[in-house]
Amino acid sequence: MQQQVPLPPDVAWSRPPLLTARRQARLTAGLVATVVFLTAIAPLATDMYVPAFPQVAGELSTTATQVQLTLTTFFVGMALGQLVGGPISDQRGRRIPLLAAVLVMTAASIVCALAPTIGVMTVARFVQGFAGGWAMVIGRAIIVDLATGARLVRVLNVIAAVGGIAPILGPLLGGLILQLSHWRVSFWLVAALGLAMTSAVVVAVPESLPQVRRHAGGLRNFLTAGRIVLGNREYVGYLLVAGAAMGALFAYVATSAFVLQTMNGLSPIAYSIDFAVNAAGMTAAALVAARLAGRVSTRKLILTGQIAALAAGIAMLAGALWFSTPLSLAIVCFFVLMTAQGLIIPNGGALASAAVPDHPGTGAAVQGFVQWVAAGTIAPLAGLGGTTTAVPMAVLMTACAAASLAGLYTAQR
Fold first, then answer.
1. Which of 136-150, 161-175, 230-244, 345-359 has the lowest average pLDDT?
2. Which residues of 356-391 are buried (b: 16+ CB within 10 A; e: fewer)?
3. What's the number of CA atoms in the CB half-sphere (13 Å) around residue 253?
4. CATH architecture of the region 16-214
5. Domain spanning 215-413 has what CATH number?
6. Which of 3, 40, 72, 6 is nearest to 296 (CA)?
7. Alpha-carbon distance 106 to 1, whole Å?
8. How far is CA 101 from the centre of its chain?
9. What is the pLDDT of residues 311-339, one digit of tens each?
10. Backbone phi, then psi, for 293, in 5-degree steps?
């Protein structure tokens, strides 16, 4: 493989030095914290709600499948919201569309909390996901507006690392809410967080896209920008790097409870601890990558994670095929897989954004769309084995790791 230089020479953006310096000076800790807040809302809105599925089904007089559909519609909304929100923010600017998205998400959370039927809940969850995805992609575009080179990679890794705490807290908060109160309280909490997020945007987020850098609107211009970013081989390569890694991550999320609890007898408390440890491993890896940005090639960090993820997938597949997925093997493979994603997903996303500096909103939108479509597609496929075999999950883990490696090769050609 050809030796790669560190990121700053790789990402030579054609921006006036004075303008770039002025924008970098505006990248404050408060702004980064707000973007972390925006990034964390999706896993919180999902993970706090999942433990309450049986209660929701009982109270709304519906089936488990229909309750599960509310999760699917949320993911679909997330994907579409990012696809639409990025290009519109390229046209209209970042600040006002971001405020609108956060307010809509807050309103949809209130509707979820008050939903009288599963139909109302399903529609509200779609709107909640759509607005949340819209807000997430604009937050990412703001970072791309204000940072370049190693600083961009560093900030995106910090956001991914700190945002990784949300999947740890989400199930714990959801379980605590169910112990002390009602499942609807989780949606009231998300609504309260939405109001806090609105205040944070008003105080800490400036308009990062001046008029001179905005693109004309309309579907035709959106399609043109989409063709430009998808015609960039480097961007497409890193898009596959991060998207395939996201698929591997959700193969784990969708089936780990069955593998560890149903197949291996792990208690719910022990499973929650293991889930938290794996999320902490991913967070730690992203923080390490942030510290190494500019000193170690970002592509080398991605490759390290990809090799580890592929090894975990192969070992898991062998264990599922011939050894009935022993507990010790599953725990180790899940930890390695999740830790590897901390090196792959944020770094792959950063290099994809760097490849299309003239269309940051569209580039971020396509990234978000691909990643959440991968999540929504892989999750049900990984569960095809039911509670008796981990083979489908292991096959998907391995295939996604191999596809991510192919994306890195494509980007480096």
1. 161-175
2. bbebbbbbbbbbbbbbbbbbbebbebbeebeeebbb
3. 22
4. Up-down Bundle (1.20)
5. 1.20.1250.20
6. 6
7. 48
8. 17
9. 999 999 999 999 888 999 999 999 999 99
10. -60, 130
